[in-house]
Amino acid sequence: MEQINRSVQMEHALLYTFLEVSPDCKFRDQLQSLQGQGGVFLLKDSYCDEEEVELQTDGNRSGHLQNGELVSDAEVNEVIRIIAAQLAEIGDQFDKEIKARAVNDLVQHFLNENLSAEEITQRMSEAVERLARAIPSDMEQEKAMLVLAMVLTKKIANTMPSLLQRVFSTTVTYINQQFHNYIVRMLRE
User: Its function (predicted)?
Assistant: First the structure.
């Protein structure tokens, strides 16, 4: 299995946990294969700058500093689990608003081997933006778009579980590019 890039560890863990806690996930067996990619529940220094991490005398990092207090990786993972569960609840509401055609169009893009990862990420971005405009929501736009991307991932994988690896990877990249700072802010709150 390929080790995930440290820069997307947080997004990887958040999306994985979102899918794991979603009640209508039809691809649980395939989802377990993503956990073996390393780092899903071990987020070492994933959302802190180097100066925010306390070094022990032996040179090992002991955890994260948040508001001047040391926060362990287990605590960070618990925060991610709580946030993912909250986002999954919102996702359940959005799920009903997403038309099958939007999902099927994305499935076709993911099946198209001629499209590069960048092109598929762009298609995902366009679909999320269209849905964000079409679905009325009183929540902040970044949160709505983040949830929509995750719900689309779930719906695509529910439609065609064999695409899970590709859609998951694309969504992690998209979330990292578009919402990384927003996620960092959520984790720090």
Answer: Induces caspases and apoptosis. Counters the protective effect of BCL2.
pLDDT digit string, tens, across residues 41-68? 444 443 443 333 333 333 433 344 444 4
CATH code, domain carrying 86: 1.10.437
| Residue 111 domain-assigned (yes or no) | yes
135-165 pLDDT, tens digit per residue, is 887 889 999 999 999 999 999 999 999 999 9
Rg of the chain in Å (alpha carbons)? 17
In whole angstroms, give the CA distance from residue 80 to residue 64. Answer: 14
Residue 57 lies in a domain: no
Domain that holds residue 130: 1-42+71-187
pLDDT at residue 102 above 50? yes
